[in-house]
Recover the amino acids of this structure.
């Protein structure tokens, strides 16, 4: 919805993750272009219930869980329990990140109750006593650690690398990604930041030492 607001002239600036493929296709079919300035970093993280003994997983195992090939936690070093993989709504930022991780592999079609509308909802479902140790979900690290405070979940290491700030910044955590300041640049027209000095000043500031300090202070990872 945020990218559509920008394309529809309802927003001047987005601070957002990379959009879903469907949004790229909408942009390509319209006389519209945008400028994406990376200003922060974050990472897709996978979360399990605190009582789940699994603390690390591989990208291949995640792909097999989300295609339905792996269905039991004992196949990835856990207990003999079926895996309940939660997903997000289609076109959400974290669901789009999951689809990029799948690299074209077919996603398991979730049960209706296993597709969660909000990132907060997916954290709550994984933490819930009803799902106990068998649930797995995903979110951006910023949301999982800063916006949702739950001692009932744990972030998994991926390929043996924990999603720390340092690992995200240096790229050793494999699902690190940029967050963008996005402004409009309609085809054949002057980019928005060249028309609006306030936008230009903001973009300069957010990449400055002070702006990057604020990026860290709010929970993202500075560049």
């Amino acid at each position: 919805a945020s990218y559509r607001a920008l394309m529809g002239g309802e927003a001047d600036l987005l601070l957002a993750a990379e959009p879903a493929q469907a949004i790229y296709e909408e942009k390509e079919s319209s006389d519209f272009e945008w400028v994406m300035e990376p200003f922060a970093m974050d990472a897709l993280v996978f979360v399990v219930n605190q009582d789940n003994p699994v603390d690390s997983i591989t990208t291949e195992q995640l792909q097999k869980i989300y295609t339905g090939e792996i269905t039991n936690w004992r196949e990835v070093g856990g207990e003999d329990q079926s895996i309940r993989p939660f997903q997000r709504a289609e076109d959400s930022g974290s669901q789009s990140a999951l689809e990029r991780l799948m690299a074209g592999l077919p996603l398991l079609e979730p049960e209706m109750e296993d597709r969660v509308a909000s990132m907060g909802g997916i954290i709550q479902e994984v933490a819930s006593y009803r799902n106990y140790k068998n649930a797995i979900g995903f979110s951006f690290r910023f949301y999982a650690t800063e916006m949702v405070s739950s001692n009932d979940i744990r972030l998994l290491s991926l390929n043996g690398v924990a999603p720390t700030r340092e690992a995200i910044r240096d790229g050793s955590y494999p699902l690190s990604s940029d967050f963008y300041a996005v402004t409009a640049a309609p085809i054949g027209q002057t980019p928005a930041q060249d028309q609006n000095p306030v936008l230009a000043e903001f973009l300069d500031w957010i990449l400055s030492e002070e702006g990057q300090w604020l990026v860290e202070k709010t929970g993202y990872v500075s560049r």
